[in-house]
Amino acid sequence: MISQKRTFSILSILLKSKSIASGDLKPVFKPRHSNSNKGQPQHFEKNLPQTTVELKPWEKQNISKDAFFKRKYGNISPEDRKALNAKVERQRRFRAMKIAHEKSLQEKANEERERARALAREAKGFKTSNSNYDTVVDRNDTIFDYVFGTHPVKAVLAAGKRRMLDLYTFNNDDPDIVELAVEKYGITPKRLKDKNALNILCKNGVHNGVVLKTNKLEIPYIKEVGHAENGEYKLAIESLEDDSVNIETKTVIRDGNEEVEELYPLSLYLDEITDPQNMGSILRSAYFFGVDFIVVPNHSTAKLGPVANKASAGALDLIDIYQTGSSLKFIDSVRQSGWHVISTSGRPTGAKPREEVNDDLEIPEPHLKNKFIELQDLRTILRKTPVMLIIGSEGSGVRTNMKMRSDYLVGIPKLRRNDNIVDSLNAGVATGVILQNCLD
Fold first, then answer.
1. Taking a C-beta distance cutoff of 8 angstroms, is the pair 297, 324 a contact?
2. Do the Cβ atoms of 118 and 165 come closer than 8 Å?
3. Quick check: pTM over 0.85?
4. At what angle do helices 377-384 and 427-438 cross, to 10 degrees?
5. Contact 177, 210 (CB under 8 A)
6. CATH topology for 222-414+424-438?
7. Quick count: other Cβ atoms within 10 Å of Cβ 376?
8. 400-424: per-residue pLDDT in tens?
9. DSSP letter string, 14-33
10. Which CATH number does the domain 129-215 belong to among 3.40.50.410, 3.40.50.720, 3.40.630.10, 3.30.1330.30?
């Protein structure tokens, strides 16, 4: 007879215990904070250390910040006022010196890092035996730009808006480039034996045998534009070193003729141009036709890097470019300063052009279809007031909220009939056509 073993289960014993039956089993983990309000929503913040926020002096007095400082410094003596201004100026100067010092340290650290990488590559055998040539190249487009092409490299060297680091050449000893690099910046060109090294640096772009390694181009922020008169205008530009705002007086670049009594500035606002090729083409046309400056948003815009520079034939470094973080507020401030804002747009069905632009240039009715003017009217407007043209992308064009803030809209008429395939021009070509119609 086969004996059967009895199986014991701890689970059955626990289930029969009185503590389980009566519900008196105590939890293994006891929360740090007892739940006195059962059924109420719990918050994670109760597990964080309690911190007290120290109130500002004006918050303690329950007044605004401006009122606090007016009360504090509004009635000081001229001597104290002079000492206070000197203190503020000294603090700003020290802050700018600190920023410049930290920036120089960062640049030196980056150079040392690049030099160490080059030495490491050389130790691994990437150095050629011919001392007249160099194949040690290391691409780092996070910190640096690699400007390629004869005209872009010449423009960057001539403009001097950024720090030059290295010049790489392959079968290209352009005397102008070599002279600028050696005499102006003290850079000796590194002749490469392998063309593929330049292809790596410019990501297979058309480099014409020359690549310039530089720091990235810094685009300053523009706060507002001022009134224009006597061929001059003012711009409020944020300093790249600190938060101060500098008022710069600019002169209109174009040359006038006998028929024009006074020259007014012409500028461009590029509304979300995301293609770097189109960006470069627009910059090239703008520089050629004498546009005074260009403004781009700090978001949803093409990278102002080597690709755009190549497409612009070097105009990227030669023309003044600024950026803004608030497009709508900036356009409003431009209009308040007496500038006329004109957006490019395809003319919708049923839109009728204005009969003519009168002498006092009245702002039209706020309906898009009534804002359209003819191309030849642009010249009349620029003779009387400064103008900012808004250029949109090929896909979506100028945004509607930008059009609503514009004084006028202008489009390029299509002369070929019975065709719905080619319905628009390239952004760079369209910009060139419009700029040509603005000028005499």
1. yes
2. no
3. no
4. 60
5. yes
6. Alpha/beta knot (3.40.1280)
7. 10
8. 889 999 999 998 888 887 777 777 7
9. HHHSHHHHHT-PPPSS--SS
10. 3.30.1330.30
